Amino acid sequence: MTRDDWLELTVLERKKYNLLVEIQDATRQLAETLDRNDEVAVRMMVTMRQDPIRHLAEVDGGEKARRAALPEEDGRRVEVLLEGGEPRDDGERVFMDQVGKTRRLLKQVMDLDRRINIRMAGDHSFYKK
């Protein structure tokens, strides 16, 4: 793969990271409104979270489409890296550093979302199924 290909994939991964930062912030604000028992603010925060979540899905789909458009050998190399393979050059290393940051933040967001969802929905929570 060319350096530009790795850069393009890294930029898409960074966009996902930035959207996750927005989602995390909105989720924290949602938790604060729950603590205040402010039903109107809770509904508003849930609605505010929808846009970055939707945009994240679009960026993720775009990244997957970009990877699918790569030549077969390059696509396999990306998959090897995403499954834990060792980077061979700086382009791969930078990409994988960003992937690692994005994955760690996604886990944090999911953990926070799980706690809030269980608190809001109780036994009807998506996470209880």
Average pLDDT, rounded to a whole number, is 95
H/I helix tally:
4
Strand content: under 5%
Overall, the morphology is elongated
SS content category: mainly alpha
Describe the sheet with the most strands: none
Total DSSP E strands: 0
Gyration radius from CA atoms, angstroms: 18 Å
Termini gap: 42 Å
SSE arrangement, N to C: HHHH
**Helicity, as a percent range:** over 70%
- List segments where confidence is low: pLDDT < 50 over at least 5 consecutive residues: none
Q: What's the short version?
A:
Helices cover 82% and strands 0% of the residues. It is mainly alpha-helical.
Structure description:
The chain is 82% helix and 0% strand. The protein contains 4 helices and no strands. The longest helix has 33 residues, at 3-35. The protein starts with a helix and ends in an 8-residue tail after the last helix.
Helix-strand blueprint:
Elements (H helix, E strand, L loop, with lengths): L2 H33 L3 H30 L3 H11 L7 H32 L8
Structural key phrases:
4 helices; elongated; mainly alpha; about 0% strand; about 130 residues
